[in-house]
Amino acid sequence: MADLMRGKRGLIMGVANDRSIAWGIARTMAAEGAELAFTYQGEAFGKRVEPLAASVGSDILVDCDVTDDASLDRAFDTLKERWGTIDFVVHAIAYSDKSELAGRFVDTSRENFRNSLSISCYSLIDVARRARPLMPEGGTILTLTYQGSNRVTPFYNVMGVAKAALESAVRYLANDLGPDGIRVNALSPGPMKTLAGAAIGGARKTFKHTDQNAPLGHNATLEAVGGTAAWLASDYGACTTGEIVMVDGGYHVLGMPQAGNIG
Ligand code: NAD
C-alpha cells in the first residue's frame, strides 16, 4: 500500500456489518495509514462493528443515531476529547421504510418522506456543522449517493428524492465550507449487496442488470469504492469539491442496455 492517508484521522459513520460500503472505505483507508473512529446505530450493530473496528486498530466507537442531536454531539465531543482535530468524515447513512421501497413513488407517505429526507440528507448537514470546528486546517467530508437521484430507477422511489436533495446539499456545503479548506463530495456506486441495498424492491434484478450492462462488465466492489474514497480524502484529491464521483463500472454513460441484452 502507498500510505496515501498516513497521519490522517477520521470518523466513519454507517458500518452495519462487513458488507457495508462504510466498511469497505474504512478498510482501505486503514490500509493506507489512516486512524479511524466509528459510530454505529444501536447496540445490535455495535456488537458487529466492535470487532471490525478492532481489526483496524480502532478503539473509538460511539453509539449514534443521527435523528438524535445529543448522540451526534456525543460523537463529535468524543473525537474532540480523544484527538482534538480530525481530517475527514465518511457519512454512509440512509433510511426509508422498506414498504415504500416497493410499489409506486406516488404513494409515498408524508411521514416516510420526512423521515427519509431527515436521515438520508439532513444528517449530512448536521454532521458537517459539527465537523467544521474540528477541521481547523481543512478536511474532507464524503457521503454516498446513487444515480436514482436523477434517473428513475425501479422502486428507488423516495430514496431517489432524498439522494437528489443530498447531492444538492453536497454542492451547498462545498461552497459554504470551501473557504475553510473543507472539501465535500459524494461517491455514487452502482448497486451493491448490502443491508440497505437489499431493502429496495427488485434489488437482485437491479444488481444483475447493472452487472451485465456496465461498460466494465461488473458492479462496484467494496475495494473500488474504498479506493476512490481514499483518493478523494487524501491530499491527491485536494482540488475536488462539490463533486458526485461515479463508481459504477461506467453504467451511467449508457442510454440503453448493451446490444446483446436488448429484446
Ligand atoms: P448498510 O445497510 O450497510 O449501511 C446503511 C447504514 O445507515 C447502516 O449502518 C445503518 O445503521 C445506518 N443508519 C440508518 N439510519 C440511521 C440513523 N437514524 N442513525 C444512524 N445511522 C443510521 O448499507 P450501504 O449500502 O452500505 O449504505 C451506505 C450508504 O451507501 C447509504 O447512503 C446508501 O444509500 C448508499 N448507497 C448504497 C448503494 C447500494 O446499492 N447498497 C448504492 C449507492 C449508494
Q: What can be said about this structure in brief?
A:
This protein has one domain: Rossmann fold, CATH 3.40.50.720.
Topology:
Blueprint: E1 9-13, H1 21-31, E2 35-40, H2 42-55, E3 61-63, H3 69-83, E4 88-91, H4 110-131, E5 139-144, H5 157-177, E6 182-189, H6 195-198, H7 203-213, H8 222-233, E7 244-247
Parallel strand pairs: 1-2, 1-4, 2-3, 4-5, 5-6, 6-7
Helix pairs in contact: 1-8, 4-5
Binding site for NAD(+): 14, 20-21, 41, 65-66, 93, 163
Family: Belongs to the short-chain dehydrogenases/reductases (SDR) family. FabI subfamily.
GO molecular function: enoyl-[acyl-carrier-protein] reductase (NADH) activity
Query: Which ligands, by name, code or SMILES, are bound?
Result: nicotinamide-adenine-dinucleotide
- Going by CATH, the homologous superfamily would be NAD(P)-binding Rossmann-like Domain
**Estimated helix fraction:** 40-55%
The second-level CATH architecture is 3-Layer(aba) Sandwich
Highest CATH level, the class: Alpha Beta
> Can you list the strand order of the major beta sheet?
3-2-1-4-5-6-7
CATH topology: Rossmann fold
GO molecular function: enoyl-[acyl-carrier-protein] reductase (NADH) activity
InterPro entries: Enoyl-ACP_Rdtase_NADH, NAD(P)-bd_dom_sf, SDR_fam
Active site: 146, 156
Keywords: Fatty acid biosynthesis, Fatty acid metabolism, Lipid biosynthesis, Lipid metabolism, NAD, Oxidoreductase
